[in-house]
Design a protein that fits this description.
Glucose Oxidase, domain 1, alpha/beta
Length: 253
């Protein structure tokens, strides 16, 4: 029996259509020779074909691209304790059984309700168990190369997020720019006087511990809604509120 590995991440690249887009400077094999801090006693003639090594210099925030939010991102304390930073996440939580909930019927800017989650589970006849990694599929990732990527999807709210944690879920993810609804939609509701409209899914994590993955991709490529594993290990950045991650679905064939 073989396995199939499905990449669930978006690339880090220049000129992305979201705030804090990465800035990547590419140094080719000739430039890398000069930029790499090679001893002054060496020059290009000392290397095969007068070339050394290609290098990239990358400037980005820890929440660029496909990444995982740590509890400390949401607030200094969670459940009355200091919120875990990304280097403190137990790696056992980042690998395990996973389930994809199909929410592609939700329109951009809409709230993913608790009933939406329960209906998606009923449609596949699945009950969430503790430590499941829950993946929310909206297909908004397909807008990644478009100017409206940050506005392309629906988003989670307080009730649904709390309910997932109550089922024993620690790690969850969505294939939209942010776990909540688009920023412009939340701000508009806030200006209209709707209480609790600003980042409710994020702020609820000040009360219950969980980790959100954002800007996932290719959830539609996973051939079955459950019965597969996900590995999603974040980069170990000391004391950070989040980090880049390259999650993969592992499907037995």
């Amino acid at each position: 029996m073989g396995i199939r590995i499905i990449d669930l991440s978006l690339p880090l690249q220049n000129f992305c259509y979201y705030p804090n887009s990465p800035e990547i400077v590419y140094w080719n094999h000739h430039e890398g020779t000069r930029r790499a801090g090679i001893s002054n006693s060496l020059n290009e003639d000392d290397f095969p074909d007068r070339m050394h090594l290609a290098i990239e210099k990358i400037t980005l925030v820890s929440h660029s691209g496909t990444h995982m939010d740590a509890p400390y991102h949401y607030g200094p304390q969670v459940e009355g304790k200091f919120g875990k930073t990304i280097d403190q996440i137990p790696l056992e939580w980042c690998y395990g059984d996973a389930v994809v909930l199909n929410l592609t019927h939700k329109k951009r800017g809409e709230l993913i309700t608790l009933e939406d989650l329960k209906s998606a589970l009923a449609a596949i006849n699945y009950n969430i168990k503790p430590w499941d990694i829950v993946l929310l599929r909206t297909d908004a990732y397909k807008y990644f190369d478009r100017y409206d990527y940050t506005q392309a999807g629906p988003g989670m709210g307080r009730e649904g997020t709390i309910w997932l944690v109550e089922q024993g879920v620690k790690v969850m993810g969505i294939d939209t720019y942010t776990f909540d609804r688009p920023h412009t939609v939340m701000v508009k509701d806030h200006k209209r006087g709707v209480k609790g409209s600003l980042w409710p899914a994020h702020y609820v994590a000040r009360e219950v511990e969980c980790f959100h993955m954002e800007s996932l991709a290719n959830l539609d490529q996973i051939p079955k809604p459950f019965g597969f594993k996900v590995a999603a290990f974040p980069i170990k950045i000391s004391k950070a509120s989040g980090a880049w991650v390259r999650p993969v679905a592992i499907v037995e064939e």
